[in-house]
Amino acid sequence: MRPLLPLGGVALALVLSGCGEPGLDLRTPSDAREYVRLCALGRPDIYCKAMLPTLREVQGPVSVILGGGTEGLTRYLAGRGLTVADFQRDPALQAAFARANIFPVGRLSTGTHRTLDGKAHAVRCWPDMEPRAGEPPYSEDWCQIGEFRAINRLHHFKDAVGSIYSTVPSGPDDFSSFFPF
């Protein structure tokens, strides 16, 4: 007896259906707010979920700093006597985190930029930044934002609305991937 769908067809159907994973999207949105909204649906950590309410309130273009994982955030909160559960229950704390990691500009450039919390951050973007020892040369989608190296995930879109900067740790023990709040 022949199966109803060939094995490749079953695999394709599972991928396209998302297998029940909310937020699984086979495209990268070109809008920073949409990127964060989809991220909040699909990521197990809390970065994007904490950003959403603030992004809804801010008018105009934005550049968002998105770090990876919750380990750095967990360590940061513990240093303040808080837990991730405390963070998730406190909208004001989440808003402070978001304001510290959102710039009200569509794309960062070399110079000084302020996040929504009013703090100034020195920014150096390609070609004004030098790679660290052992790193390959950077391309035009990279910036040094304060202490972070970050890549603009929306750089390749001609119609991008805003930017998403994914931070890169400076080493294996570096868990700081966001600005303190």
Automatic annotation (TrEMBL):
UniProt source species: Deinococcus terrestris
Protein name (database record): Lipoprotein
Recorded superkingdom: Bacteria
